[in-house]
Amino acid sequence: MENIDSLFNSDAAIAGLGLGVIIIIGIILFIVHVLICLVPFFMARKRGRSGMLWFVISLFIGWLWTVIILLIVGDTAEKKIIDAEKYYSNNS
After folding, report:
1. Nearest-10 crossing angle of helices 63-73, 51-61
2. pLDDT at 1 over 80
3. Are 64 and 37 in contact (CB under 8 A)?
4. What is the pLDDT of residue 12?
5. 42-50, long-range: CB < 8 A, 24+ apart
6. Do 44 and 23 fall into the same domain?
């Protein structure tokens, strides 16, 4: 019984527990970051751009900067043509 008590009271066990908690929090934060980076992915696809490329860019520079850049660059020329054709075909 004394060996079990000394095992749980050791500094190594406490340090190991702390390291485990830090790793778990890091994994959770990474998953949240990846999920938030899906916002630029869907924004890019909606604007006629490569969603996967913008997803990877957002992983490196941050989702907020990527959203701002996507808002600035806007739709592709092809997307604008397709939208205009849809608009005029519905209003004719």
Report:
1. 130
2. no
3. no
4. 65
5. 43/67, 43/70, 44/70, 47/73, 47/74, 47/75, 47/76, 47/79, 48/75, 48/76, 48/78, 48/79, 48/82, 49/73, 49/76
6. no
Residues 54, 84, single domain; the answer is yes
The verdict on pTM exceeding 0.85 is no
Length of the chain, in residues? 92
Mean pLDDT of the chain: 86
Q: How far apart are CA 26 and CA 20, in angstroms?
A: 10
52 and 11 part of one domain: no
- Measure the CA–CA gap between 78 and 89, rounded to whole angstroms: 16
Domain that holds residue 78: 38-92
pLDDT more than 70, % of the chain:
83
